[in-house]
Amino acid sequence: MNELYSNHINLNAVTNSEFTYERVKAIADWLLARVDTRPRIAIVCGSGLGGLAEKVQNSMVFAYEQIPDFPRSTVVGHKGNLVIGLLDNVPVVCMQGRFHSYEGYSNALCTMPMKVFKLMGVETVILTCAAGGLNLSFDVGDIMVIKDHVAPLLWTLQNPLVGLNDDRFGPRFPAANKIYNKKLREEFKKIAKDKNIDLREGVYSSFGGPCYETVTELRALLQMGVDAVGMSTANEALVASYCGMKVFAIALVTNKAVIDYDSDNHPFHEEVIETANRRAQVLQELVTEFVKKISF
Ligand SMILES: O=P(O)(O)O[C@@H]1C[C@H](O)[C@@H](CO)O1
Ligand code: HPA
């Protein structure tokens, strides 16, 4: 087995049956035994956005490879640490890098950390990601609050909830029409307004990658009402919501999706990272303020 990957998790396990309640609880307990902090908020840092985790104080940093049964981060711009500590005095657990299905991980494995968070006592999950802007009025650098998603992989057996259901995590047939908490979206928008930071709100889509989308795929998504397209987040949002946690998600528009058949432009990861680095500070400021606000 590739040593980048985890110790004894079955990487090909498509269903969630590999990640039993007991197995996930063992991971949560392993972490809780090593920190004094009891985080109620979890933050997932997307491509190039891991700097937020560096703002966490009194932190304990666990490299993913230290944590039993955790996968490894293999993507540039995803450091691969779980950081537990205080963000402006609010206890948080922060994923400095996430797992993607294009890394060879099943969606059940990609989203397993959400279940760990649930069993650590987390109540709210904040997801961040990089995305290509599809909405014609979007500019590179825009921040979009996600209000819904379209995720074709989740229409298949790659849905992370496929498999025997354990009701201790969530219901067999969870609703998916209210994944992105409206109150949290409103709160975030208020904070941005007070800071004079322009925000977008829209629909995110994820095909899972690793290739960027074809022109025709993007045009179809545009017709469906999609505003930004990425390779992650929807799966995590689904599982976090299924577990009964509140979900808030933002996508940073790191590039423009190319919807002209004859364009010479194309998306590339270096541009994604570069834009993320350029906008990281604003995003960090917004998320830190948001965390403070919702912690009461
Ligand atoms: O991990 P996220 O969704 O933030 O990153 C996006 C999707 C791919 O990992 C990468 C492509 O450039 O950016
Ligand atoms: O254009 C994109 N497509 C998919 N994923 C992405 N992540 C950043 N930009 C993009």
Low-confidence stretches: 1-7
Distance between the termini: 45 Å
Supply the number of structural domains. Answer: 1
Q: Please, what is the CATH homologous superfamily?
A: Nucleoside phosphorylase domain
CATH topology: Rossmann fold
Q: Which descriptors apply to this entry?
A:
296 residues, binds ligand LQZ7MJT6, binds hypoxanthine, 7 helices, alpha/beta
Model description:
There is one protein chain. The chain is an alpha/beta fold and 296 residues long. It has a single domain, classed as Rossmann fold, CATH 3.40.50.1580. The protein contains seven helices and nine strands; from the N terminus they run αββββααββαβαβαβα. It has helices at 21-32, 107-110, 112-120, 182-194, 215-224, 234-242, 269-294; strands at 41-45, 57-63, 81-87, 90-96, 124-133, 143-150, 200-206, 228-230, 246-256. A five-stranded mixed beta barrel has the order 5-8-7-6-9. α4 packs across α7. The longest helix is centred in the C-terminal third of the chain and has 26 residues, at 269-294. It is globular, with a radius of gyration of 18 Å. The structure holds the ligand O=P(O)(O)O[C@@H]1C[C@H](O)[C@@H](CO)O1 and hypoxanthine (HPA).
Short description:
The chain is of the alpha/beta class. It has helices spanning 21-32, 107-110, 112-120, 182-194, 215-224, 234-242, 269-294; strands spanning 41-45, 57-63, 81-87, 90-96, 124-133, 143-150, 200-206, 228-230, 246-256.
Write the layout of secondary structure elements.
Blueprint (H helix, E strand, L loop, with lengths): L20 H12 L8 E5 L11 E7 L17 E7 L2 E7 L10 H4 L1 H9 L3 E10 L9 E8 L31 H13 L5 E7 L8 H10 L3 E3 L3 H9 L3 E11 L12 H26 L2
Bound molecules: ligand LQZ7MJT6 and hypoxanthine.
